[in-house]
Model the fold of this input.
Amino acid sequence: MSVLACACSVQGPRVPTSSEFAAVVARLERTDPASPALLSAKLGYADSLLSAAPGPCAERLVRVQEQLGSVEVDPTTPVMFPDGLARAADLEYRLHLARAACALRAEDADELRAAAAAAHRAVELYRDVFDYRSMVIMQSNASMVLHQLGETAAALSDLQAALQMDREYGFQDDARENYQLLLAWRSEASGPAQVARLMQDFPKRRATLRFGWHPANARITLESRREYLKDGQPFRSRAAAAFQLHIGAVPGGGWSVSYTDRLARYEPGVWSTIGSPKAKDSQAPQAVFPPAPIPPVGFTVSAAGQFQAVTDSEAFAARLVDRTDLLIRAQAPSGTRAHGLTNDAVEMTADVLSPGALEAATAASYALGTAMWIGATLEQGIWYETSAPLSLPGIPRIVIQHGIAFAFTRMVPCAADAAPPRCIEIVIRVTPDRQALDDVNANTFSLHYAASIEGRIVTDPATLLPYAREERIFWYYSFGPNRQHTTLKSEHLVSSTRYESNSPVSPSVIKH
Done:
């Protein structure tokens, strides 16, 4: 994949009117009520009602509350639409402000306090989905509401927290506005000269990413939490693995990556829990998940970092299938459906954990975590765009073009107890190309499909040795007459790599 900056100015699409949104919501409720498009349309409808819709204030805000309430209680939202929780909290903040402005209640201060609480909740929800700019904006919004309430100390504290975020994430324009506000609240001169003085040490970071591997040993831990909805009931599973990583030089140049202890702490995550993961009841699983192919296979790369070949896929896949089969049978539940579910899980194992599947997963993981970034120079806070042919989540046999947007968001410690921050965080968003997806939808049994991938990686820019990775993957599809075949699933994958203390420390390549 090539790293390409988007240096163009694009006029956004026309925003539909509130009546158009209402029509879309009504149509989707009739034709595709399980689709995440319905949730997005409801939030778009609420946004349009708050922004510029005609009509009496009270009537509009009642309709806003109806749309927000239906999204927040929908069991689909946390599975397929986690961004929607942040957007809903953002809109709830605006709803409380609108109620106060419309004087619908005598207790306007209560509405403002509710707005501040919604803004604080949106800060954390936006942080969870890596939408840092919206996170900082909501932090600033909370401070302004508190200032309007006369809670000066709390308002200043929130505004200073927003400024710390601006500095961490490199949001210069936002910082200028917040500094001007801070000076005004302190009854100090707040003109351009005073703001410029406060901005003179504002960090401007650039990261040059180089492939510089060295011999190293590390401990890797992985966790995959998967979820899907069936008849409105959430089914969940947890898969995990922990093993040792070894990077060694190859005679003649290049590097070999090998692993040990891959099966000692492997949990395939086949058996589901039903409802809340904290529920105290002990219902037997009523469904199974495919075994999670999270243990990787060994591979080699060139001296320049190009992926070359896997080294042990055949032998390791056979061992992994045998081990998974034993784990499935040993952990099989009791109950009338236990035998059938166990057979279903065992039958999936050989296909899901085949040598080819493990090889593809290993190559894709290396491409995203290392190869994609070799030689790139990224300005902090700038979003870059590229594209690549990728498998559709949930339908791996279909490969279409995907849009990939990414940004160097902040500097972070390479490990939790490491200092100073030497690694960088890169946030990535992947979505299927709209036209390519329309072609699939039109030619594949009237398939209706939606998916997204949001992730972050933490890497050392001087070496491109990975330290952490997180991915949130969501997909939905329906097909057949009346769309009776519907699947809605998500996966949250988290991995961390902790290198042994004798591994060399690389010099920083971050420019301020």
